[in-house]
Amino acid sequence: MSSERSTLITARPPGLVDVLDRILDKGLVIAGDIKVSLANVELLTLQIRLLVCSIDKAEQIGLNWWRYDTNLTTRAERAEAENVELRERLSELEQEIKKLAAANLAAGSREVRKAKPKRRKT
User: Fold this and answer.
1) Within a 13 Å sphere around the CA of 50, how many CA atoms are in the beta-carbon half?
2) Has residue 16 been placed in a domain?
3) What is the pLDDT along the chain (122 residues), one digit of tens a residue?
4) In a domain, 112, yes or no
5) Residue 58, burial from CB neighbour count under 10 angstroms (0-12, 13-18, 19+)
6) Does residue 68 lie in a domain region?
7) Residue 8: domain span
8) How many domains does the chain fold into?
9) How far apart are CA 32 and CA 18, in angstroms?
10) Do the domain assignments include residue 25?
11) CA distance 115 to 118
């Protein structure tokens, strides 16, 4: 009876854990297109691409978007804080440039007035 039991155990189909392990190890890609048409006029096209795999497998194939997603990483928080700081500095520099341009424009108009020769009355 023990031999029957061992053949039943080895002959059973793979369980959920086995299937998930294989999917995460090898990866699973699901791709599909959905097109909505009315009277042979295409109104909407949805292209769906789904990749299910482990993080290690994703990094092996060059996918690492989660490292830079602002909602997922602390590095992204630092990068966002740096972006805010840089935007503020850029705004300050733009204001300084506007002030300098206005000062140069005012100085240039004064020089033009000085450079105009006065007409003598004869």
Assistant:
1) 9
2) yes
3) 555 555 555 666 778 888 888 888 888 878 888 899 888 888 899 888 888 888 888 888 888 877 777 677 677 678 888 999 999 999 999 999 999 999 888 887 776 666 556 666 65
4) no
5) middle
6) no
7) 1-63
8) 1
9) 26
10) yes
11) 9
pTM above 0.90, yes or no: no
Residue 77 contacts residue 52 (beta carbons within 8 Å): no
Q: CA angle, 77 as apex, 71 and 78 as ends, to 5°? A: 160
CA 120 from centre of chain: 70
Token readout for 81 is 């804080």
H or E element: which one contains 35?
A: strand 28-38
DSSP 89-122: HHHHHHHHHHHHHHHHHHHHHHHHHHHSPPPPP-
Are 82 and 70 contacting, i.e. CB atoms less than 8 angstroms apart? no
27: left (phi over 0), alpha (psi -120 to 50) or beta: left
Q: What is the largest CA-CA distance in the chain?
A: 136
**β partners of residue 50:** 30
